[in-house]
């Protein structure tokens, strides 16, 4: 297929493009800096300029078979008012303008696979959550609701629309795992807050696998991109310490996280026990269903 990708130069997008190329697909990208995208990603069928504040150029959408939309401001970092506005606008307005571009251009891809996040569910303690569970009501949940609503507008153009609700993506060279490695390798790692909260994680190869699975299955509606085995954060920390051969006895108090990260601390301390029930019903088989083998594969 000819696949149009947004967010292609990000941590997940780079791995996605590599796998698309391995499978023989043509890749076009929308990027703020198309020349940098070509340099980073290598052989591309097309690289087109796009600022998410406006619809993409018509020529970028011509003759594409599928769209995978990953673009969005990272949620990592201190949540100031400006940061929260960028998180929301990049997702909600960016998706709205992407769909508007499809409408204006008259392009007819078969499917829009649009990133979302398990932030959709909010803080739910020990409740088991799947794709049919209700949304939460905190900041990130509201962003995800609006984000998915904008993507769903593409259905009126005849596209299948599959929001993929990503958990904590674990991979080499970026993402949550990279940020954890330094303190853990120094023996300063440990649980965040009480450590009782559930973390729903996914190996990057399974995150990419689910995005690509969504291209080929005849399905509309959300898929959870989380491993079948969520972990309490304290157990996640212990497993990471065991893989690295380092102690994990120094917790990070919740108040310290709040001082350092503002509202983002609430996400790290919140509990989301998310299960990929619909993803598995649609035939996706996880390469890394268990945490320790996943971490050993990434850090070995």
Give an account of the 3D structure.
The chain is built from 12 helices and 13 strands. It has 300 residues and is α/β, with parallel strands linked by helices. The strands form 4 sheets. A 7-stranded parallel beta sheet has the order 3-2-1-4-5-7-11, with helices on both faces. Helix 1 crosses helix 7 (204-216).
Summarize the topology:
Layout: E1 2-6, H1 11-22, E2 26-31, H2 34-41, E3 46-49, H3 58-61, E4 66-69, H4 81-105, E5 111-117, E6 128-129, H5 139-152, E7 160-166, E8 168-171, H6 175-185, E9 198-199, E10 201-203, H7 204-216, E11 223-225, E12 231-232, H8 233-244, H9 254-261, H10 264-269, E13 273-274, H11 277-281, H12 291-299
Parallel strand pairs: 1-2, 1-4, 2-3, 4-5, 5-7, 6-13, 7-11, 8-10
Antiparallel strand pairs: 9-12
| Fraction of residues in β-strands | 15-25%
Radius of gyration: 19 Å
Question: What is the average per-residue confidence, as pLDDT, rounded to a whole number?
Answer: 95
The helix count comes to: 12
By secondary-structure content and strand pairing, the structural class works out as alpha/beta
Instruction: Give the low-pLDDT segments.
Output: none
Number of DSSP strand runs: 13
Q: Topology as H/E string?
A: EHEHEHEHEEHEEHEEHEEHHHEHH
CA(first)-CA(last) distance: 34 Å
Fraction of residues in helix: 40-55%
Shape category:
globular
Largest sheet: 7 strands, parallel
Biggest sheet, strands in spatial order? 3-2-1-4-5-7-11
């Amino acid at each position: 297929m000819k696949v149009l990708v947004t967010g292609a130069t990000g941590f997940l997008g780079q791995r996605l493009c590599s796998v698309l190329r391995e499978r023989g697909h043509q890749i076009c990208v929308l990027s703020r800096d198309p020349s940098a995208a070509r340099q980073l990603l290598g052989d591309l069928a097309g690289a087109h300029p796009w600022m998410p504040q406006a619809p993409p150029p018509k020529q970028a959408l011509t003759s594409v078979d599928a769209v995978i939309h990953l673009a969005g401001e990272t949620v990592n970092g201190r949540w100031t008012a400006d940061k929260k506005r960028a998180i929301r606008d990049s997702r909600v307005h960016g998706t709205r303008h992407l769909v508007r571009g499809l409408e204006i251009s008259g392009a007819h891809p078969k499917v829009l696979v649009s990133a979302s996040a398990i932030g959709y569910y909010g803080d739910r303690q020990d409740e088991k959550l799947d794709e049919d569970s209700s949304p939460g009501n905190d900041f990130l949940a509201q962003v995800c609701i609006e984000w998915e609503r904008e993507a769903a507008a593409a259905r009126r153009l005849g596209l299948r629309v599959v929001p993929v609700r990503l958990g904590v993506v674990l991979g080499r060279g970026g993402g949550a795992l990279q940020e954890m490695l330094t303190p853990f390798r120094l023996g300063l790692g440990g649980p965040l807050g009480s450590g009782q909260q559930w973390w729903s994680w996914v190996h990057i190869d399974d995150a990419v696998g689910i995005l690509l699975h969504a291209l080929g299955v005849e399905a509309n509606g959300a898929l959870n991109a989380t491993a079948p085995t969520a972990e309490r954060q304290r157990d996640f920390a212990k497993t990471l310490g065991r893989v690295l051969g380092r102690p994990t006895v120094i917790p990070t108090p919740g108040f310290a996280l709040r001082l350092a990260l503002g509202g983002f601390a609430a996400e790290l301390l919140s509990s989301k026990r998310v299960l990929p029930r619909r993803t598995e019903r649609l035939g996706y088989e996880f390469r890394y269903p268990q945490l320790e083998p996943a971490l050993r594969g990434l850090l070995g």
